Structure formats: structure tokens, C-alpha cells
Amino acid sequence: MAKRIFISLILLVIFLAVIIGLFEFKLTINKKIAYAIAHMPVPPVTVSTGVVRSAVVPQAIHIVGSLTAVQGVQVSAQISGDVTAIHFHSGQMIKAGQKLVQIDNTTQLAQLKADLAAEALARTNLQRTENLMKDHAAAQATLDANRAALLQAQAQVAGDHATLGKLAITAPFTGYLGLRQVSLGEYVSPGTPIVVLNTWQPLYLDFSIPQNDLANVRTGQRIKLTVDAYPGEVFNGKVEALSSQVDTASRNIQVQAELANKRLLLKPGLFGKVTLLTGVKTRSLVVNADAITYNTFGDYVYVVHKTMKAGKPILTVASVLVKTGNPIGDDVMISSGLKAGEEVVTAGQLKLRPGAVVVVNNTIKP
Known about the structure:
It contains three helices and 21 strands. By secondary structure, it is α+β, with helices and mostly antiparallel strands. Strand 16 (293-295) and strand 17 (298-309) form a beta hairpin.
């Protein structure tokens, strides 16, 4: 019995020794693998590059603007009543004076007949009195009273026609209608909206500029507008007017430009990016916009440097914070952070870190 226990203990010791040996062997292998990986040379990153250039660029102001109609109105009712006829469709092009909506006018038509009869009677009484005056058979006071009565009757008839005109709602100018906001038989009261009417050609473009730019803005200057609705489209216009005062709250001044909108693509209410060309040219550093990396800590670029390693020339990159200016086509102005002639990465930034080794291949387009 004691012999069996002794043999079992020996086998247990041998088993534990084997397990510990395997564990230490695996641990040693893992350490060697980790060391090899840590000291493995990082392969160079392939990038494309561009050069920082000094160029004469036109000075421009970049702001956001909103389009408004040269003529735009919310057509509404002036007199209460039921809608008895609708003479338009939503989105229709309408001409000035064209009837839009008819409001119940039966009462006013009846009143007009009564007032026309009163006018005819007043005219007859006046003529009779004038004939009597020729024979000196009527008093001057009677003649004056009859003239006044005719004038009052004519005024009443004119008032009836004016009321009937307000009940027949017409377009105040030629333009394009919006969506119909009333239905047949609906009761409307003064101010009830019926439909929006706008002109589309031309359009006004309203925007504000800081007071510091006031000296560079004047009427007649060209503007360019881009909107998200038409990517790649550029709409041209010119400055028509500046506000007579600077807003004391924002210290901005309101500017109004006009766009021809010949193709009727733009609509009132659209907003977009405005470029106001001041006509002034300045010299500035520019770089391809793809070189700029944007994050919450600031804009930066990767600048390529030539260094030596193990006696061989290599290319490495360093991240440099930059201050950007206005965009100019595919380029962007650089206010600080770079020098003319420096080589910067324009494609492949996502794989880079400061100090990374790179290989330049400019067949790769940004």
C-alpha cells in the first residue's frame, strides 16, 4: 500500500514538472515573438504629395446667403365669405390680374342692383330739377340737394363695385403660385391665406458681411452662388445694394445681390454658399485642399522630410498645424504653418503617424 502511494506521488511530480515545463516553454516563445514583432521594421507607407506654392490670388469674401423673390406675397382674403370658385392649380404660372378665387358675392350683387336703381332715380330727379330751373320753377336749394343725392348714389355704386372686386381675388402680378391653402365652400375671413405668389426671374440674394469687409464691397461686384440642390452648378450675379446702416447687434451689414435665374432652377427660400469677388489680388501660399486634415484640435498637414538612416536616405513625415484661408478652386490659402516649396502629403494620410517612413508615388491621385 505504501509503495503504491509512493509511485503515485512520483508520477504526480513528473506530471506537474512536464506541465510547468510546457508553460515556461510557451511563455518563452511568446516573449520571443513579441520581441520580434516590436523590433520588426515598419514598412514604408505609399503616399502622393504636392508642393506648397506662392501664388497671386483674387481676394474674395465667403459667406452664406438666402434667396428671396423680387416680388413675393401671401395672397389672402380681404372680406369674409364662402369660397364659391377656385380658378387656379397649385404650382401654376399666373398672369397679373388673372382671377384666383371667387368669394360668395350674391348679397353684394343684389345691393348693386338696388344702388343702380337709386342712382338712376337720382339722375332723373336732377334732370327734372334742371329743366324746372330753366323756367324758374324750382329753388336752387332743391337743385343742389338733387346733385348731392346723385353723387351719393354714384359713390354707393362705386363702393359696391369695389366690394365685388375684393370678393373676386386676382393675382397682383405675374408669377408662380405655391400650394393651394383653401377649398371650395370653405369660409374665409380677412387675412386667411389662400396661396403664395412669387416671381422667380430674377431673384434677390441676401447676405451679411462683417463691418471689417465694408471697404472692399460695392455695387456692381460679381458674386457666385452654389447650392446643395444642384452640385457642381455655379450661379452668377452682381451686388445691387448695401444697407444704409450696420447692425449694432452683429456688427454686420446687409448686402443684396441679383441673379438672373434664366433657367428657373432656383427658388425663393433656398440658401447657399456665396463667393463675393472683391477684385483685389494678393500674394499668398496655397496648397491642394486634399493635403488638409481637419479635426477638433485644428487643421494640420503632413510635411515630408528627407533624413538618413543606417547611411541610407529615407523620407519621413511630421504633422504641422496650419491656419487656412479661403478656398480657391482645388486649392486652399495657407495663412501660417508652411513655407513655399515644402512637400506635403495629399493622399494616404489615414495610414500615417508622425515620424512614419513613406514612399512617394504621385501616380496616385488624391
